[in-house]
Amino acid sequence: MAVQIRKAKRSQSLLRVLLSGPSGCGKTFGGLYIGKGLGAKRMIVIDTEQGSSDLYDSILPFEVIDLQPPFTPERYIECIDAAEAAGADVIMIDSISHEWNGKGGCLELVDEVARAKFKGNTWSAWSELTPRHRAFIDRMLRSSAHIIATGRSKTETAQVDENGRKKVVKLGMRIESRDGVEFEFTTCLDIVHDGHFAVASKDRTGLFSGDPKPITEDTGRRLAEWLASAGAPSPVPAAPQGARAAPAAQATAASAFDLARKSIAESCSLDGLDVLRQRVDLRLGQGVFAPDEHIELVAAIHARAEELTDPDAGLGFPSESPETEAHA
Q1: CB-based contact 139:99 (threshold 8 Å)
Q2: Does residue 202 contact residue 188 with C-beta atoms inside 8 Å?
């Protein structure tokens, strides 16, 4: 197969941003300001926080979908579908943590499935819950709107030995969702109580280096400018006149899809998967992959990321965490 080398060029995309922090740190407030800075024409908030977004109706005009328990992955997907059908160009999900550990969320569902189908074996039950959780993540990623998601976080601690004595140390903040969820977003901002300052734990934009800054309307405006600065995907150069035609078997959509699947399966690092994810998105914009192929490849990347994070993930098990241990 002929190998083509092209110049790297970022293509236009939709924003996927995650705001995490403890309760009361300003996630909803910050998310609405980002939406305003993005120039939202119709912003819809999927609110799981008992109408907390209504307190900030002075920031910009927006509409609300009140999502009540049970917080199943399918109900989140239904709300995203409804927001898109209503013409939303910015969708804020406040918050995604309920899909994981809220009433009717994944951690509660896995117990129910274990009792009903697997004689109480929660590890086996994850083989059914993992695809449902992935479906929710994939639905966010292929949304036709900008996605602003919020998630609760709490301090993660560990017990270590120091000079022969046990000591509890803080490891930082950890979002209340499945391990690795941050991998799927363009930018992840951790918000602290004091001054609502945001620190980037992941940033593909390069806008959040340096000292922490509070989230304002200008934050959304800068993100909008970054998105607008990307050009349309570059066309594939035409072959020079007189050049010999390449074999018919080269670079068909099917072979590109198979090659992408192979590259994902053989990837040995999260950084490598991150690069593959960007290439897959680019190929979708160029028409190399059909939408259903893109969804399948994104799911394969997510599954491979879980395998690299936790070898048991390949069996459908979640990575170990205090929540999953408590439900095992």
Answers
A1: no
A2: yes
Report the predicted TM-score, pTM, of the whole model to 2 decimal places. Answer: 0.68
Which class for 11: exposed (0-12), middle (13-18), buried (19 or more C-beta within 10 A)? middle
Phi-psi group of 202: left, alpha or beta (phi > 0 → left; psi -120 to 50 → alpha; rest → beta): beta
Mean pLDDT per 10-residue section of the chain, whose length is 328 residues: 70 86 89 96 95 93 96 97 96 96 95 93 90 94 95 78 74 79 90 80 87 91 89 42 39 69 86 77 68 78 79 49 42
Tell me what pLDDT residue 237 has: 39
167 burial level (CB within 10 Å; 0-12, 13-18, 19+): exposed
- C-beta neighbour count of 178 within 10 angstroms: 24
Structure tokens that stand for 114 in this block: 């274990």
Assigned token pair, 60:
């910009």
- How far is Cα of residue 195 from the mean position of the Cα atoms in its chain? 26
Stated as kind and residue range, the H or E segment containing 89 is: none
Quick one: tokens of 275?
């690069």
CA distances (Å), 235 to each of 8, 14, 196, 283, in order? 12, 20, 43, 11
Do residues 74 and 27 make contact, with C-beta atoms less than 8 angstroms apart? no
Q: Are 187 and 202 in contact (CB under 8 A)?
A: yes
DSSP string spanning 178-193? -TTGGGGSSEEEEE-S
